[in-house]
Amino acid sequence: MSDDELDDPALLHREQNVDLVLALTPAPDVDLAQIFRHDDTWLVSVEAMTPFFHRDFECVGTVFGVEKTYSGMDGFRGFELDWLAPWASFRAEVEEAIDVGERVLVLYRVFGRHLEAFVVVGMAGYAMSQEIS
Prior knowledge:
Layout lengths: L2 H4 L2 H15 L8 H6 L1 H11 L8 E6 L2 E6 H13 L2 E13 L4 E11 L5 E9 L5
Antiparallel strand pairs: 1-2, 3-4, 4-5
């Protein structure tokens, strides 16, 4: 960021949004299936994340071709459990985080091993944060 950009509060705020989203993103070696499936690891994760989310936030996900809205942290876990249902393990590596105003677009490379397979599959993925305030 240039000196002029550091003096612009709006640009600084947007950079902080990207930093916040990246700080809440698990490391690339973390097995997301284990975090969401096991109550103990979920409780630690949700305790750390909750202060950064509105209590009544919603996420919309498409799982197996069906779009569904999930509410709150319990809903977020429900979405992830639905998404991770066929995967024995699943992890994501951030390729790029892009500031798009009051939101952040995160491009991922995701890797998963299906419950009935021994190979790891890699694919592109993305997530869009909601308005950050």
